[in-house]
Amino acid sequence: MGKGAIKDLGPELKARNFQKALIVTDKGLVGIKLIDSLPKELDAYNVEFTIFDEIKPNPTEQNIEDGLSILKDQECDVVISFGGGSSHDCAKGIH
């Protein structure tokens, strides 16, 4: 968390042997390209990823169930929350 934290993420994921991340965010952040530095960082450390951007304000049980389904289907071994409270809340539910 915090300014510049994305630059610490790749080494941390590799140190913990994570191979594939589920990025939990919302369409707004994807649309304005605010998230773009995160995939670049993961690529630099050969960590695969899938983006789940269907988060609604005040996430629903369905958001969490959809995220869990993607987590399992894509065989992700770590969850990364990117954004505000709704993304964080949903990521915690998925994890």
Automatic annotation (TrEMBL):
Transmembrane segments: none annotated. It holds the Pfam family Fe-ADH. Residues 1-94 form the Alcohol dehydrogenase iron-type/glycerol dehydrogenase GldA domain. GO terms for molecular function: alcohol dehydrogenase (NAD+) activity; metal ion binding. The keyword Oxidoreductase applies. Keywords: Oxidoreductase. Its cofactor is Fe cation. Belongs to the iron-containing alcohol dehydrogenase family. This is Alcohol dehydrogenase iron-type/glycerol dehydrogenase GldA domain-containing protein. It comes from Photobacterium proteolyticum.
